[in-house]
Specification:
8-stranded parallel β-barrel, 16 helices, Immunoglobulin-like, alpha/beta, 4 domains, homodimer, globular
């Protein structure tokens, strides 16, 4: 039993048992959670973490300065004009407790004719009824109002309040964009530090601006975007941004036709600049709070979530804040890597799952709780083997977990395994067989954040892309995130394979950016000279110049969108290939229809309708490879995460990169091999709950058989 | 046993048996076919049809005037530039016997940088090697040559030649765009008429320009477009068109990025004008040949196929030719209606299936031959009940059919049934419950030709749309084909329901035409005031103004193309509805993914992934209805033809039109009811091979039970 790197959620209701569990788990820190209070004398458990809110929690201040509330531009419902005048109840589908229209800035509101996408004048707002009346409208056009609103209830508290049926006071918001509030939050920080001498770590939950989270009139979530800058729409920011850059943002820049600039929309240049502007403001402001923490001998830890907007951990200004640590929820390998690779902080902590809440910890559910724990650990462990977090922990009510002794015991084992892995890896970088780059509109700034809706909620349209990141998080592959701008004048020399994955026209596939000839030629040249290219879903897609996939020549496949039905397609035969060798059934997730192969490409899998038989024109390609000059490409319609698919992706990466697969390799798909050159140690990992015998190939290709117990990590 | 309305393919090898069968079938006309000769004294069988070719068949003339061959613009392969110079072997993927590059008009050739879609100069052509060399190209761009070629082998003969392994002379082409050839074809017509006094009907197969049919270097079909004007690209036409309209067509107008202006591409205004120009030329020229036929007492019949380009039967110039008849192959109900509704001719003839060829008529296959005959008859019969052809017939070798006595007998029965139906209908119009319009870019000109690849080949991407026309061809619905131009300033008063069906951006869905505010408002107004709207697949789709389906408000559904994943969708519950009442399993054919319902719409069917459970955001809508003002809409992802789906479409039509279903209605889905007001007769049709008892509702809604024998038409 080892000690340290573990934060326990302490619970004053549990009494002495806390100490026992803390010891069993080797906890060296204690934290409070929503709804719990720390035990007396918390320091006896180690370091003490306390939650801290910057822009909510002090309703007294907020009530004194209602004009300094946070702001957002909201888009009303579309209303059909059936007459010369149209009346729009702007708040109709919004939660009235969350937002209060702000007519002080009426000049910044916009009425749009959405049928033609044009701003119109000739309207008025009646504050009493909340109705905007637009005169002289065009019949059977649809109209909207984009209006500025004060945020009068913090969205995260709304979520907790409604979910847990709370009856406490509704937390207002305040915005340090206003100098008055900015001074206030510093004062408050100072006072809080003084009042909390026991606190070692200030766990910021989080900083200044909540991600976009809009509730509807029924109190249900209406729109959620974990990357949304909607709540930064303070007129002071908009004006300062104009003064700094000459770019005048309008309501439409925020509401974006109702899309609210979500991550799937290719960001405009002005939006990218605005994000940087907010990052500078947030990091500058937070720096002052962090300095106060340091002055009082406390560490500053950022929770990656909630009000994290403007604190982009992979952005250019993150380091300026001077933070000591980050913490985040660990949903799988992707979240481990998203957290563990954040630069400029001393340590990275993960809050493991399951959360100690009654939804899992109820009588008779111990087996499931253990199962969930194991599943999450096995999924996350793949990523820890590549780049571990520095600390682990749990959240919720410890008293609930304490009722499940097998669960408590299993956490202890996992904590030890976590510490073992951490110690074994040291600071040495694990061996990477090759370097892959995920290419999208966001690049480095959104490293490991590709294809996320909300904070990684499952969504039908994207799990087949998100599976790529999840697979990569545990593969012996160096991963970089590149933006289209990063490669359009040449692919960085150290990249072996470029991956472009996503639905057509999204920021991840790229859409119209592929009309840029420099981007096209840069990738073509890279592949032609020996590089690898992997396309998933609708890579490089934009309908132009006779093609849908602009790099169809590189990929060897294109998508039939209805314009080339009259062109005969003879390449519909599946061929054997080393990538698919030994794999019979494939999981394409959401899949893509109507993909066809060009001449010369090799089809690794193809589907046929059971409605019609023909020896051309009727096959739908699911997977193909192509040779292009000295380089190679691989295409697949979708790649949800699974053992097969992770292996599959790895084989495709090696093949496109022209690398021998059988180096630091474990053949059974339930297993993976990690090699640590500094310590010259191999870790063969069994991701499954079964005994597995696998062939293991060392760095020189030497092969031997290895037997692994369920979930075992075998060090060689 | 009745007589007439029947053309038999006579066969001099069959001898006296011909007479017997002709009598059995009630044949009153005889025709020759490829590979057969008419018996001696053919007139004893009735009218004599002879095949006639206008622009092929006389290689002597063609060889004397090689410069008067037909022309086409071809697009070379795309060739990647990996250096400063790129060399393009222009004929590399074409059949060298079919085309001969024509450097006489080198000034009309175009070299394109397809990476950026720009025409480039600085190239030269070497006629010996067939290579175009382009200097100073941009590295890693792709280049093509659009070159004019002489058509040196008639494409239809290529097809027959290769398919049947012929060794006869390859037929050259000649083009009456050249005045010399134009005079010649008249002379030839006159001589032929003189030389063939027995011929009563000149069966033109067909006129001047073959639909686009390009073979590849392996002698396989490379591109086929039944509506293609590619083979009209004679420089004389292009120049005359310029002189007439001021529009100078270039090679790119013909090759269209490799799409060769197929039917799925929204036609440009200049293409539409050019089609009309060619129609005028063809009808003017053919008029002179028809006059010659008439002068010799012969009728002129057009085969709708092969060289039918420019003879658009629903175009504005078709009537000018003075034709007596049309004939075409009957594949199903759509082809019946496509033929039977052609204006300006005295009679319409259908060549029924199966063709008397050895692929069906081989020893031991009689049962299948009868089955195919029945299946085709039952499918086509639905359309005959609405608007019958005037004559039927068969093609191929009668000697083959003669070997199958049950087949011969069944043809006799069908011929009688066909004549019965024809007589029963008279000239009276059957009762139509409502009037529906198919709305697409082509409108009336391509009536009953919607969603055709080649000449109605099955294709994966479109059978789910083509099923709509097939269903309509036999429904008690008046059908009109409207173009977007026809409705953008108001929907014609007599339309009850508008149908828009197709994949996004195709000419059938409409693509960017939906950005036209007049089109949008016109349809909105129509529905709002009580009209019906049916969308299938991706109706009104174009990504703009925050929507994909521009009439999402009317339809109550939109497609998630990746930009609104962050917006919550709660409307995912299936509700009961009269349209789906009694139907449990639906066939959406190719289907569409990611359709979601807006607030207020009613979902009639929705699919859920088995991967994730959630009570919002995860349902994929397959079918929905919406109320919009006084009007109604119906959406479905796809509608391949089948008894269920035909019924289903009819129910949706009645519901959206606000019409009571139970009028002139037969409840069992195997049956359909037709009513003929003039004769006050009802025909209850059993489309199935089973006995069926159905509820029949008369024009006043009076209900009674009717028993139908297999395949029976019961007249009441």
């Amino acid at each position: 039993m080892k000690f340290g790197r573990f934060t326990i959620p302490a619970d004053n209701e549990l009494g002495e048992k806390t100490k026992e569990i803390a010891k069993l788990w080797g906890a060296d820190a204690v934290r409070d959670c929503d709804g719990t209070a720390l035990p007396d004398d918390p320091k006896r458990f180690g370091k003490v973490y306390n939650t801290y809110f910057v822009v909510r929690g002090d309703n007294e201040w907020a009530k004194l300065h209602p004009e300094e509330a946070q702001r957002i531009f909201l888009l009303s419902d579309r209303v059909l004009a059936t007459d010369d005048t149209v009346k729009i109840d702007i708040m109709r589908s919004f939660l009235k407790d969350e937002f209060d229209p702000d007519p002080v800035y009426l000049d910044r509101w916009e009425v749009y004719d959405r049928t033609v996408g044009e701003k119109v004048g000739g309207w008025s707002y009646d504050g009493k009824s909340g109705i905007v009346t637009v005169e002289n409208v065009k019949k059977f056009h649809e109209y909207t109002v984009s209006f500025l609103a004060r945020i009068t209830w913090h969205p995260v508290q709304i979520y907790n309040y409604i979910t847990n049926k709370w009856t406490c006071e509704k937390q207002l918001t305040y915005d340090p964009a206003f100098p008055n509030t900015r001074e206030y939050i510093k004062r408050h920080m100072e006072e809080w530090c003084k009042a909390n001498p026991d606190t070692d770590v200030v766990r910021f939950t989080t900083f200044l601006y909540q991600f976009t989270l809009i509730f509807n009139d029924k109190g249900k979530e209406k729109f959620v975007e974990w990357f949304g800058y909607g709540q930064t729409a303070n007129p002071i920011h908009v004006d300062n941004f104009y003064n700094e850059t000459g770019i005048r943002l309008t309501a439409e820049d925020f509401v974006d036709n109702g899309h609210y600039n979500n991550m799937f929309r290719t960001p405009t240049e002005k939006l990218k600049k605005y994000i940087e502007f907010i990052e500078r403001f947030v990091s500058g402001t937070i720096k002052e709070l962090v300095d106060i923490c340091h002055k009082y001998g406390k560490e500053a830890m950022m929770f990656l979530g909630d009000d994290w907007i403007g604190a982009e951990p992979y952005g250019n200004y993150f380091g300026n804040m001077g933070l000591d640590a980050v913490v985040g929820s660990v949903g799988g390998g992707v979240t481990v890597r998203m957290l563990s690779e954040i630069p400029h902080v001393t340590y990275h902590e993960g809050r493991f799952l399951p959360y100690f809440f009654p939804d899992t910890f109820f009588d008779g559910n111990e087996e499931n709780a253990v199962k969930e724990l194991n599943k999450n650990w096995l999924t996350a462990r793949r990523a820890h083997m590549r780049k571990p977090l520095d600390r682990m922990g749990f959240g919720g009510y410890l008293s609930l977990a304490a009722k499940f002794p097998r669960f408590v015991e299993r956490v202890a084992e996992i904590a030890d395994e976590f510490r073992d892995i951490y110690d074994a890896l040291g600071n040495g970088k694990p061996y990477c067989r090759l370097k892959a780059a995920i290419l999208n509109a966001w690049g480095k700034k959104r490293s490991w954040m590709s294809h996320m809706v909300a904070h990684e909620l499952w969504y039908q349209s994207i799990y087949s892309y998100q599976g790529i990141s999840e697979a990569l998080s545990g593969l012996p592959v160096e991963v970089e995130f590149l933006s289209f701008d990063d490669v359009k004048n040449g692919v960085p020399k150290d990249i072996d394979v470029i991956i472009n994955a996503g639905d057509a026209y999204t920021a991840f596939s790229g859409g119209e950016v592929w009309l840029d000839e420099n981007l096209q030629t840069s990738i073509r040249e890279f592949v032609y000279n020996g590089g690898g290219f992997i396309g998933v879903g609708e890579p490089t897609a934009v309908s132009a110049n006779g093609r849908y996939f602009q790099l169809a020549d590189v990929l060897g496949v294109d998508e039939e969108i209805g314009f080339t039905l009259s062109a005969d397609k003879y390449n519909i035969e599946k061929v054997k290939h080393e990538i698919t060798d030994g794999i019979e059934k494939f999981d394409y997730g959401e899949d893509k229809k109507n993909i066809y192969a060009l001449k010369g490409a090799k089809i690794l899998d193809v589907a046929f309708s059971d409605r019609f038989k023909r020896n051309f024109n009727v096959g739908e390609v699911k997977m193909a490879v192509n040779e292009y000059g000295k380089g190679r490409s691989f295409y697949i319609t979708g790649l949800p995460y699974g053992f097969d698919n992770a292996r599959f992706l790895y084989k495709a990466l090696c093949w496109t990169a022209g690398k021998d697969l059988f180096v630091c390799y474990s053949s059974d798909i339930n297993t993976e091999c990690n090699y640590y050159p500094e310590s010259k140690r191999y870790a063969i990992v069994n991701n499954s709950g079964e005994n597995v015998t696998t062939d293991f190939y060392d760095i020189n290709g030497g092969k031997r058989s290895v037997l692994l117990k369920p979930m075992e990590v075998k060090w060689l």
